[in-house]
Amino acid sequence: MHARRAMLIGGASAGTLALAALGYRAWDRGVWSAGKGLAFAPWQDWEGTAADGVKRPIRAAVLAANPHDTQPWLFEVGDNVIRVFADRARNLGTFDPFRREMHLGIGAAIENLAVAAGASGWTAEVTPVDGKLTLSPPDTPFQVAEIKLAAVPVSRHALLPAILLRHTNRGAYRADQPVSRGQQRHFLDLVASESVRIVFIEDTSARRELGALIVEATAEIIADQQMSVDSARWFRTGRRDIGEHRDGVTADTSGLSSLMVAAAKILPELSAESADKYWLSMTRETHVATAPLLGILLVRDRLDMRSAIDAGRA
Ligand SMILES: Cc1cc2nc3c(=O)[nH]c(=O)nc-3n(C[C@H](O)[C@H](O)[C@H](O)COP(=O)(O)O)c2cc1C
């Protein structure tokens, strides 16, 4: 009797210990701290105050979409001028060999800055620095734009609230929220330049063909060892990793359900190879499979993609 009770007590404390260990693991891996802590502080005080002066709209700039959340930008603040530099050491290596994605991310940051400037009482006149993308450029910072700011009465751009709300969603597309013709037209109208064109592909067979190309390209990428390594370098796992780096991609935005995200955090870390396989299956079975339409951005018609799958074939 005595011995049995001792066993029960021993069993109970082993169970409590296991639970405590699981709880600690869950806490340490950030199961309850998604979106919290220093890494996410820029979303709390993104509008700043008048005391920030010309620096104020930079708070909005750094919330922009950018490749693998590398945040490849630097801002040099002068008298009513902000010079924007590509922080080229923060790159994706062979995953972005010409740093094309890097420059797109910096462009998104400049766009946010220009949108937010009005709310701080500034106009922003952006002058990009002319130049060409080259293969594996040096890691030294490189100036990409100059933004002149002039004081004007405060005005709020219609897209200002979207800067805070926007984020990358890697889940399935929602069939109950189709992109209307009007929204498509609105997107097309946003592209004012003759050298840049958007094509939307809705036609089922054209969409299937382009979808297959996207999946094939993803498979080629993950088959390339160096590309896989250069991408995985920016994966952040666990509370400490995220707090220390304050950049990179995390399980929280992987498109998994909250339960699966918690499990992914608690279980041993995925190898780069397993993460790549997950990416490929998400691309094939979730993104391409559920996208009601696909959009292609054609820049100076160089990315022909057989004339954007015969211009939507519609
Ligand atoms: C040029 C560019 C390319 C991107 N490529 C991908 C991609 O291939 N797959 C993906 O899941 N996210 C991609 N993203 C999204 C980024 O990973 C995301 O913007 C970044 O992690 C910051 O997260 P947020 O958009 O939620 O603020 C891309 C973003 C940019 C600007």
Number of helical elements: 12
Q: What low-confidence regions span 5 or more consecutive residues with pLDDT below 50?
A: none
Query: Sheet bearing the most strands, described?
Result: 4 strands, antiparallel
What is the distance, rounded to the nearest whole angstrom, between the alpha carbons of the first and last residues? Answer: 81 Å
Brief sketch in words of this structure:
With 314 residues, the protein is of the alpha+beta class. It has helices at 2-28, 41-44, 58-61, 100-117, 160-165, 181-190, 204-223, 225-232, 238-245, 258-266, 272-290, 305-311; strands spanning 73-78, 81-86, 122-128, 142-151, 196-201, 294-299.
